[in-house]
Design a protein that fits this description.
The protein has about 60 residues and is of the alpha+beta class. The chain has two helices and three strands, in the order ββαβα.
């Protein structure tokens, strides 16, 4: 099963969670179970290879990603 990186931000915090899912929508559904009220975005995990995840998360939180 493919891996996805799910960016999340809710009242409890923010971060990037790795999940195994069938597709992007499925990955977001999985993360939504743990973050029901937050903002979510999922991308294939391989897109994060070699990328500074902290900077990418910061850009996403600012609405740049």
């Amino acid at each position: 099963m493919p891996k996805f990186a799910v960016f999340f931000s809710d009242g409890a915090g923010f971060g990037i969670e790795m999940v195994q899912a069938l597709d992007v929508a499925h990955a977001e559904d999985i993360a939504r179970a743990q973050h029901p009220t937050g903002r979510l975005s999922a991308v294939p995990a391989e897109l994060l290879d070699g990328v500074n995840r902290q900077k990418l998360l910061a850009a996403w939180l600012r609405g740049e990603g």
